[in-house]
Write a structure and sequence with these properties.
The protein is built from seven helices and two strands. The longest helix has 24 residues.
Length: about 170
Amino acid sequence: MPSALVEMFRHNLWANLRLLDACAGLSEEQLGATGIGTYGSVRDTLVHIAAAEARYKAVLAGQAPDAAGESIAWESEPFPGVDDLRERVRRSSEALVAFVQGHDPEQVLRGDFRGQTYEMSVSIPLLQAINHATEHRAHVMTVLSQCGVEPPVLDGWTYWRTGGRT
């Protein structure tokens, strides 16, 4: 049986892909929609989720967050499309699952980010990765609901009932 942490990151992968699948058929207007209290447009929030996951992957691999070429450079470029984001998220999320399967819970990460040195337990970026994605998926689902689009159900029970399949 996988550890709880591994299962949480598998759920994160499943939920991210399921949300992107739900957004694949949205119109330009729907992708540009936003709501009060959310990160921004659906489009911008999806890009933000994908870029952040790539940064977490970089930090956990011992790289500077802004050195993750696939995470920073394309974040400010024109929207790459849902299919492209889906592939980026799949790669990053699978790397996070692989990391938690073999990580040392006592590991300390050290590095430099935007001119500031840091030292933190590996648990901090792991915690942030789950919290960040959950929060922003909820933002997208709120906006979808306001646009009259039925958002996907991404809770743990549905993940379990579907066997974690998208």
